[in-house]
């Protein structure tokens, strides 16, 4: 069998080209051409895949770069805000220190004024306020640290001592009524004989409230002969106050009372010509005139409107 192939190619002008080709060589050329074509196809596919991956990677890198720039911008904004907050903090701290200095200066001035006021007013009735003494420095030690507000601390302790002392001074009115009989010599309202009146009588309506004039402890609360229904309060500093001719007693022996607390009601019990309160103050067992303590209360009330000081 003939293994050769004749390939005849006819031209337009009748020219004929004849090619003589071996069948085996043709197969080899066909195989080589197919291999080349396959290689080209695979190379094209690989190139397309590589391009696609490269394109996606480029997009991803671009997105990462964009996000990085955004985050850098955010971080920069945060740093600016932190810096602004630090500045505001320092400004506020400076303002606070200035305001504190002003408040402390005003406090020192007010404490000094209050202490001097209390000394003058309470001194006007001959009452000696407790002296301020610092704590003992024995059995102590440690490093020295200067205190810029030592004067203020002294004033605070001093004013506190004064206010605490006033709490136990029987100042103020036990009832709102007017005075019907003063302290000292008088004509007895029942027998018209000269006698010594150891307290002050206040007019009052039956059932009107009676108030304690200082902090203390109820020492007696009972019906006391001609004094009628009677309450005695011990203030623990040599002072006692008593309230007589009550209609009703509202405290009992041993009760702790505060200035302004209701202790009973105005009445007409005992040796009395009508509803009133007999009010006494004693110092170390001796009766003293309550009127000057009423004057102190009025002065404190007047000055408290100017200094905002509350004595009760």
UniProtKB/TrEMBL annotation:
The keyword Transmembrane helix applies. Residues 196-290 form the M23ase beta-sheet core domain. InterPro entries: Cell_wall_metabolism_enzyme, Dup_hybrid_motif, M23ase_b-sheet_dom. GO terms for molecular function: metalloendopeptidase activity. Keywords: Coiled coil, Hydrolase, Membrane, Signal, Transmembrane, Transmembrane helix. Residues 75-102 form a coiled coil. Gene3D superfamilies: Glucose Permease (Domain IIA). It comes from the Bacteria. The chain crosses the membrane at residues 26-51. The keyword Transmembrane helix applies. This is Murein DD-endopeptidase MepM and murein hydrolase activator NlpD, contain LysM domain. It comes from Desulforhopalus singaporensis. The lineage of its organism: Bacteria, Pseudomonadati, Thermodesulfobacteriota, Desulfobulbia, Desulfobulbales.
């Amino acid at each position: 069998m003939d293994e050769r192939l004749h390939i005849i190619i006819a031209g337009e002008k009748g020219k004929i080209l004849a090619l003589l080709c071996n069948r085996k060589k043709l197969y080899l050329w066909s195989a080589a051409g197919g291999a080349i074509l396959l290689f080209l196809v695979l190379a094209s596919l690989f190139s397309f895949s590589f391009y696609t991956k490269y394109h996606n990677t480029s997009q991803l890198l671009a997105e990462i770069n964009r996000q990085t720039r955004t985050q850098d911008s955010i971080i920069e904004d945060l740093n600016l805000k932190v810096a602004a907050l630090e500045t505001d903090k320092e400004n506020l701290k400076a303002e606070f220190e200035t305001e504190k200095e002003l408040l402390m200066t005003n406090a020192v001035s007010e404490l000094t004024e209050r202490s001097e006021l209390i000394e003058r007013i309470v001194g006007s009735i001959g009452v000696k306020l407790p002296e301020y003494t610092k704590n003992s420095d024995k059995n102590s030690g440690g490093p020295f640290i200067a205190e810029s507000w030592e004067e203020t601390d002294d004033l605070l302790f001093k004013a506190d001592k004064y206010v605490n002392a006033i709490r136990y001074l029987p100042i103020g009115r036990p009832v709102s009524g007017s005075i019907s009989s003063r302290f000292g010599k008088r004509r007895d309202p029942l027998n018209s004989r000269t006698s010594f009146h150891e307290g002050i009588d206040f007019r009052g309506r039956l059932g009107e409230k009676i108030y304690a004039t200082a902090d203390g402890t109820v020492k007696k609360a009972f019906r006391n002969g001609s004094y009628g229904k009677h309450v005695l309060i011990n203030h623990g500093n040599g002072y006692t106050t008593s309230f007589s001719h009550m209609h009703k007693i509202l405290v009992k022996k041993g009760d702790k009372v505060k200035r302004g607390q209701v202790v009973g009601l105005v009445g007409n019990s005992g040796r009395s010509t009508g509803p009133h309160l007999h009010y006494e103050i004693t110092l170390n067992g001796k009766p003293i005139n309550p009127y000057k303590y009423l004057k102190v209360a009025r002065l404190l009330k007047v000055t408290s409107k100017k200094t905002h000081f509350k004595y009760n």
